[in-house]
C-alpha cells in the first residue's frame, strides 16, 4: 500500500502511528509529498481530489482518505476493533476524542497557513484569534478528563498527535502549564515507539 504523506503532517502522523501500533507499518510505502492549499500537488490531486494528505492507495489501487477513514481501514485490516472500540459509549467517546484532536489540528493548520501563506496585507487577526480560541477551548475540554495512554485508542492517538503538533509549530503556547495532566499524557505517549519513530523533524 502507498501512503501519500509528509514528515510534518499531523494527520499523516496519526495514520503512521496507527499503522505501527497495528503492526502494519512495514506494509506501507511512504510517498513524501509537499503541498499547501496554494501549491497544488498533482500526484496527490490524482489520488484525492481534495488535494490533501494523507491518502492511502491500496494494493488494488483504491484511494482511501481522509485520516479518519484510513485509520479505520487499517484497524479492519488488523482484525477490527483494535483501536476503534466496537460499540456503545466507549466507541463514541473514542470517535469524539478523535474529532476533537482533528479539530485542534485543523484550526492550528489554518492559523499556520494564515501566517505563512496569506500575504500580510490580507491577514485578518480576528480570524486567527477565532481559530486559536477553538484550540484553547478544545484543550480545556480534553483536559477535563484524566487521561492515561493505555489502553490506546484512536481518540488518544489523535489527541497525542494534536498536542505534539502544537508543541512543534506553536512552542509559545502555554498549554503545558495550563493543563499539566495533558502534558504528562503526551509525554507518556511520546515514549511509545510509534510516537518516537514518527516525530516531526
Ligand atoms: N481531514 C483531513 C485533513 C488533512 C489535512 O488537512 N492535511 C493537510 C496537511 S497536514 C493538507 O493536506 N493540506 C493541504 C490543503 O489543505 O490543501 C484528514 O483527516 O486527513
Describe the structure.
The protein has helices at residues 10-21, 42-47, 67-77, 88-116, 125-143, 154-169, 175-178, 180-190, 193-196; strands at 2-5, 29-32, 55-57, 63-64. Helices cover 56% and strands 6% of the residues. It folds into two domains: 2-77, 3-Layer(aba) Sandwich (Glutaredoxin); 88-196, Glutathione S-transferase Yfyf (Class Pi), Chain A, domain 2 (Up-down Bundle). Strand 3 and strand 4 form a beta hairpin. By secondary structure, it is α+β, with helices and mostly antiparallel strands. The mean pLDDT is 97. The two termini are 24 Å apart. The chain has a four-stranded mixed sheet with strand order 2-1-3-4. Bound molecules: glutathione. The site of glutathione has 15 residues, from helix 1, helix 3 and helix 4.
Structural class: alpha+beta
Helical segment tally?
9
Assign the CATH architecture of the largest domain: Up-down Bundle
The topology string of helices and strands comes to EHEHEEHHHHHHH
Helix content: 55-70%
How would you characterize the largest beta sheet? 4 strands, mixed
Listed once per kind, the bound small molecules are: glutathione
Query: What is the gyration radius calculated from CA atoms?
Result: 17 Å
Number of E-state strands: 4
Identify the strand order in the major beta sheet: 2-1-3-4
Kindly provide the name of the CATH class of the largest domain. Answer: Mainly Alpha
Q: Which regions have little confidence, pLDDT < 50, spanning 5+ residues? A: none
Shape: globular
The domain count comes to 2
CATH topology of the largest domain: Glutathione S-transferase Yfyf (Class Pi), Chain A, domain 2
Query: Termini, distance in Å?
Result: 24 Å
Proportion of residues in β-strands: 5-15%
Mean pLDDT: 97
Protein name: Glutathione S-transferase
Domain GST N-terminal: 1-82
GO biological process, one term: L-phenylalanine catabolic process
InterPro entries: Glutathione-S-Trfase_C_sf, Glutathione_S-Trfase_N, Thioredoxin-like_sf
